[in-house]
Design a protein that fits this description.
Elements lengths: L2 H5 L12 H13 L4 H8 L3 H14 L8 H33 L3
Helix pairs in contact: 2-4, 3-4
Length: 105
């Protein structure tokens, strides 16, 4: 790949995880209104979209906005993981049943 080709392509940002305490501090800074969300994001090296999502989720958790709370989101994710695992288990059992059914007695 030439330099000209690579100049036009942006690399995706690495995915970072932040502690709930850090997110809460950022949300509190946004709620104070001293600085804009964009300025706070820039000051801390965050994306404006991420900060806006944190503020929005904090509003949902506080009951100020409709939507799934953080605990409901965690529960939903856990249930989806369990559902996927159970479907895989059922698929394995179906294959095992078919295998043993095809064996001569």
């Amino acid at each position: 790949m030439s330099i000209m080709e690579s100049m036009g392509k942006k690399r995706p940002r690495p995915r970072c995880s932040f502690t709930p305490e850090f997110k809460a501090e950022i949300v509190e800074l946004c709620r104070r209104g001293d600085r804009s969300v964009g300025q706070i994001a820039k000051d801390f090296g965050l994306t404006e979209t991420a900060v806006r999502l944190w503020v929005s989720q904090a509003e949902v958790d506080a009951g100020e906005r409709d939507g799934l709370t953080s605990s409901e989101r965690e529960e939903l994710a856990a249930l989806r993981r369990e559902n996927r695992r159970l479907r895989e288990d059922v698929d394995i059992l179906k294959r095992a049943t078919a295998f043993f059914a095809s064996m001569p007695k």
